[in-house]
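Per reviewer request, we include the raw input and output of the structure prediction for the construct analysed in the revised manuscript.
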Amino acid sequence: MWQGKCSEPLEMGQGRVTLGLVRCHVLALATMRRNYLSFLAALAVLLTAVPIRAAGVIELRERRARAAQAFSDGVLLLHSRAATDFVSDGYREEAAFYYLTGLENSPYAILAIEGKTGQCWLFVPRKDAGRTAEIEPGKPAEEKLGMEHVVDWDKLRDFLTGRVAAGAKIYYKPEAAMLPANLAGAKDVRAPGWIQLLQQKWPKAEFQPVGMKLYTLMAVESPSERQESNMAARATVTAFFAGMKTIHPGASQRSVELAVVDACWKEARGVSFWPWAMSGPNGVFPKPFESDSRYNHLDSSMQPGDLVRLDVGCEWDHYQGDLGRTIPVSGHFSDEQREVWNIFVTAYRAVAHELKEGLSEDQCFEIWRTELLKHRDSAKSPLAQQAIANWSDRKNVPYWQMHTMNLDAGYIEGPLRAGMVIDFEPIASIGGQGYYLEDMYLISKDGAEVLTPGLPYTAEEIEAEMTANH
């Protein structure tokens, strides 16, 4: 019989849950002399009220075992997020580190997974007097995390010395290059600075980037992960409508972004990325990418006749939402824009209808292309004719894409697999305006479930929603 106190929550994955409390209530109910059916009903209510956290110890072990298999000829070396600041709304852990450890508040820690033995090492810095450590070296931490070794990070040197001597490759996650090739301390300029220092210490060791393996490792979601993705998707739908309501001539892009952010904080745990409300030329790719390196995020005043790329995402317990539409600033599309957009939507829906396990991105584009060409003879406006001709050739739509969406957006390696949550996101432009549509889908063997339902698609549906909003 379980003998824990009612005030003791049960440790599980990234945080504490109230299963201990539930058990106490179950025992209390059992002592009441009620009939069996009443007891079962009360038990069901209590169990459904318990929040389910992202991953327990068993699931985390299974993830690490798959990582060991993926990097069987070496050691996967991952650093937690080291940068902390007073500007961000909170500390956000590196996706892969969190996925494999369940730790959400452990700056500076380093995870090593040995491919040959399958053993896991977590190297933890000494406790900072000014901070409360989420984890400390020792047996209690090893039992909590289901890891073989949780040790002081001073032991990392001896660990790497032994593994390098045994000929193990060291796998790392690349980052943006910080120095030119003639100054970088590594062959790969994208190697993080700490990896470059390790390479200098062990010059004969073979350091390799992880490539697509981490994205592939995280791509298929467990039932608990799907619950988190579902919640992120639902919150994102609400945030989309909040942003859409604020679009009108003269509105600033910033005002729309703030409406989205406000909704994400009310419905979830904030944004999974800063929203894009890119109007007119700002919405034509690759222009939106410039916003990340601009002080004002490309802020501008929305002009009548322009189209807005409204691309939003809310975060729920580290899992991320992502969806969007093309919105007319004036509340209605021009005749040419309406025809182009509806053809775009028809091609999008043709692909969405066929999404299922085994389908590749190239096959999806061929479905898109085939549907576009069906409208070649019936398209009325020169703009629509031009759009069909351009968008049916892959080289003219380089940003047309599909990607996974879980703890982070990721590339898809190979065909779709059941259990993946993906975003289908065709991106195109014509006539100086961007066209874009995006939803989240849970892939199954026989089809796909839309995780972001209730949104408008056609020009008429979007215009009706804009009219209702204003």
